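ok trying this again, last paste got cut off
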Amino acid sequence: MKDNVFSNYINSQKIYGMPFPYFIFIAFLLVLAIYLKVLPAGLTGSLLVMLVLGEIMGFIGDRIPVLKSYLGGGVILTIFGAASLVYFNILPYEVTKDIVVFMKDGEFLNFYIVALIAGSILGMDSKALVKIGARYFVPIFGATFFAVFFAAAGGALFNYSLQDSILVIALPIMGGGMGAGAIPMSQVYEQLLGQPASYYISLLVPALALGNVFSIVLASILNKLGDRVPSLSGQGRIMSGISIDEKEQELNLRKMGIGLVVAISFYLLGSVLSSFIPLHTYALMIIIVAIAKVFNMVPKIITDSSSQWFSFVAKNLTLAQLFGIGIAYTNLETVINALSIEYITIVFAVVLGAAFGAGLLGRLVGFYPIESAITAGLCMANMGGTGDVAVLSAAKRMNLMPFAQISSRLGGAFILLLSGVIVSFFL
């Protein structure tokens, strides 16, 4: 009798939409191919590893009580589980290398993010887009001010200098990740403070890594808080009466193909314009897509197709993407080396300050505090595009990706400018 109950339970469980036994067979086949060193190279093998192992870790993480409720669940386990496979040399080097190449040189992360940006913006009401965009930089300013303030207060508590608390911890965390934040910031520091950029990067990276972890954890906690205190949350809507959720449509495979082409084409246009305009490609893409939507420059077939492609990518590739982030972008050794009580406390204070400031000032301009704290706060305090995916996944608000990208890119550019001003002040 017990055997029948267990058998029925196993057969009723699904991973990636498949019955449990079938998915486990695929996982076994994958492990066998890796062991025999016959896993296909490039896209084919890398994507299958990311899909299968990412789904397994996500499935487990979402069923561990404390982890799923307060620490990001499947999101955090997928990222750090993948990073652990690299750190402890469990995943063969050849497989790891292929995934890194696929994520970085193959720009799989860009492929994922542009689908979310195009689909979620084009799926919005144009009047709502204008209403939100005009106010969004207020909570970004609030996030920056309170992050710096909390960093200074935390630093004073542990006898950290004001310079270390702000320049080495707070600003890197708020700066939009490695490529758009820490690397150019280290070059600014090199020019103004004298040490080589590599020296400053070694100081900035631990803050980024820990800040990213705390951003994911707080995103999960804010999601739970929104469930318990509904008045603080729009449940995915950033303003009252405004929704950017996709509309119900009849599934159409041709439309998905159109959505794929449209998303990449908008990204391509942003890349072309970035050759002439000193802004990040994502920032330009957001502006272009927003203009196209506000002025009704694209027909309904384009908006519907983009929404369907957005939905497909978000539902099918998110955990695979998170696994790839863990492999290619998360250095577990860097995180471990930064683990001192004082340092961790100050980093947490920065992330908490960002969320608090964005939520507070967001409410003053009509945003729901939790959505404002997540997008304008935590998505400034994470590691750019990779962090945006993880934070919004933990918060269960992937439809807010355009606002997350504004925070990471335009907000990050603001922090870079601010870092130069503050360094000059300390000099």
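PB: full thing came through this time. The mean pLDDT is 83.
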